[in-house]
């Protein structure tokens, strides 16, 4: 795919100091209708490139690299890789965009951030898409993710890095070789020794070491405070968003619409046309 996007940054703050958060955007910078897309735990802004190109006729599409990922600065205090910091960063970004409201697509962690903002009084989120995430984050999925996050070795080649990404992201479902290369290139970087490394701060794994390994995360109070129209995408084989949780989401809080993506676990990549079509129809 071509690089017809703009990369910008905004200065944000946490208790340990200032940091720069990078973001990319597609579409007309004067367009007042803005779509913010936020990636999962170890992913990056450009994951949404296929979706952004499909939406930028209607939206200015803005995709941040969360702190510690992609082109954004790493935080001085790893304990700040947490929901309150991410929410504060996103509020700063929305202020930079100079709009009163945004639509939101959040994959996994990005959806948790979206839920937290959408639950606030006078929230700027107009419509919300939760991509394979909900008010219960299962211990099973957290243990699976914790088994690899922050533990990736250096890779001798881009091909080796791609094979690693394919292995840890197998649950994304079937993709072409071109799509897997795209998904790998978004999250790796070359190093000074001529090899390749993951592009995220390994310290984001510390949160997984400070939790009860058999306990789900319960975010129902956040979800039940959401009032905006909400679409939930669930991978058929997801271990993070259980089917019973998704069903309950249609009856509680914003009474979301749920669409299940066949042949996919955690999480749909929003690369395939049929996945993009679900998001576009809901938002436009």
Short account of what is shown:
With 284 residues, the chain is of the alpha/beta class. It has helices at 49-55, 83-97, 109-118, 139-146, 158-168, 177-185, 220-223, 243-249, 273-283, and strands at 6-14, 17-26, 34-38, 60-64, 102-107, 125-131, 136-137, 188-190, 196-198, 217-218, 230-235, 257-261.
Which key terms come to mind for this protein?
284 residues, alpha/beta, Rossmann fold, eight-stranded mixed sheet, 29% helix, 22% strand
Approximate shape: globular
Q: Main β-sheet, in a few words?
A: 8 strands, mixed
CATH topology (level 3) name of the domain at 6-136 and 219-283: Rossmann fold
Report the helical percentage. 25-40%
Number of helices: 9
Radius of gyration: 18 Å
Question: Low-confidence stretches at least 5 residues in length (pLDDT < 50)?
Answer: none
The side-by-side strand order for the widest beta sheet comes to 1-2-4-3-5-6-11-12
Distance between the termini: 24 Å
Structure notes:
With 284 residues, the chain is α/β, with parallel strands linked by helices. 29% of the residues lie in helices and 22% in strands. It is built from nine helices and twelve strands. Strand 11, helix 8 (243-249) and strand 12 form a beta-alpha-beta unit. Helix 2 (83-97) crosses helix 3 and helix 5 crosses helix 6. The longest helix is centred in the first third of the chain and has 15 residues, at 83-97. It is globular and about 50 Å long. The mean pLDDT is 96.
Write the layout of secondary structure elements.
Layout lengths: L5 E9 L2 E10 L7 E5 L10 H7 L4 E5 L18 H15 L4 E6 L1 H10 L6 E7 L4 E2 L1 H8 L11 H11 L8 H9 L2 E3 L5 E3 L18 E2 L1 H4 L6 E6 L7 H7 L7 E5 L11 H11 L1
Parallel strand pairs: 3-4, 3-5, 5-6, 6-11, 11-12
Antiparallel strand pairs: 1-2, 2-4, 7-10, 8-9
